[in-house]
Amino acid sequence: MFQQIYQCEPQVEARAPGRVNLLGEHVDYNQGVVLPAAIDRAVYVTAAPTSDGVVTLHALDLDERVSFQLSEVDKRHDVDGRALPGWALYPAGVAWALQEGGLSLSGMQAVYTSDVPIGAGLSSSAAVEVAFATTWRALGGWSIEKLALAQLCQRAENAYVGVSSGLMDQFASACGVEGHALCFDTRSLEWSPEALPPGTAIVIADSGIRRNLTNSAYNDRRAACEQAVELLRNYMPEIKSLRDISSVELAAYSMYLPDEICRRAEHVVKEIHRVDQAVIALHRGDAQMFGGYMFSSHKSLRNLYEVSLPELDALVEIARGLPGIYGARLTGAGFGGCTVNLIQAKDAQAFMQGLQEGYLRQTGREASVYLCKASNGAEARLVNPRR
Ligand code: ADP
Ligand code: MG
User: Fold this and answer.
1) Would the CB of 124 count as within 6 Å of ligand 1?
2) Nearest CA among 248, 238, 291, 301 for reference residue 271
3) What is the mean pLDDT of residues 332-351?
4) 61 CA to middle of ligand 1, Å?
5) Nearest to 18 by CA among 98, 94, 131, 111
6) What are phi and psi of 47, to 5 degrees?
7) Residue 113, exposed/middle/buried by CB under 10 A (0-12, 13-18, 19+)?
């Protein structure tokens, strides 16, 4: 495809995966620990360098193409002075952030495609960013820590594209380890791969619902957490975030918090504790125990954090009754998007079919269902090296 489009040979092929969060929801902005995994769905870039500083992007899935000059990337316009289209801001933002970070980039001709569904909560945007950062790294021949690369990609999304988001998505896409969840401390930025129990598989079920509500509700929840910390500081002046409070302490001071704020804080504090427990379950290879924490997480997101929807609840309850299930919960911000299920791999086909049929019967809606494996993070390889 690359040769057909550009009439020359490519030099680099790069891949960067999407991700799913297995546990630790709405805890990243409270400095908690999250447990995502990179999945075996990814963005694939094929590229060759150019010497004129021009970057040409050909997005196969959108059937769109645009060219921009690296030295003018901060202006957000193409080589003809027109505003860059929205989809191009992700790779252009990466070029901007890498250069801001002092890295030297070359122009390139690139083609890319992806099997990460867009807007489903599997972070197709982070996969695009990390794939392009990895492509530029390979073309430039420089090296960079995976986490630092993820941080530059996050900067691209926050400051250039203009979408505020935590580091988890880019982190998982950059640092994924096959067969492992990633235990990522969003306060210290320390992380470790934790093997998933043998014989398990991940199934992601897309409810098909996209709610515009997500942004305002997300901001509300963040504000509630900040308010909880502020009020609790009257009694525990040393705390910096909900990460610093145990559930016993929260119970002791709960009478000083408004009801709703208290429910939000209770979810966060207990979810952070659940992640600790779930990591112990992984150390024991205990899928049943891990799955139990997934179900509890969903219940808490539904009843305390109030970010679920009847359709997401239906997906979780149907899953609970199917063969091979260990645990299920909504994943991502909520109000639509996906559930994540940990299941026995041998039951995958029956499980997926049962989930789709049950969901259709109960809601009249079609769920897209994806069987996923925890996968390695982004990588690039040189192709057609000069002889
Ligand atoms: P997600 O939850 O999947 O990350 P976002 O809204 O954050 O959803 O990002 C989706 C955007 O990322 C798309 O609108 C597009 O601009 C870009 N993107 C994702 N996948 C592709 C692709 N295959 N080709 C081009 N751009 C893509
Ligand atoms: Mg995104």
Assistant:
1) yes
2) 301
3) 96
4) 10
5) 131
6) -150, 160
7) middle
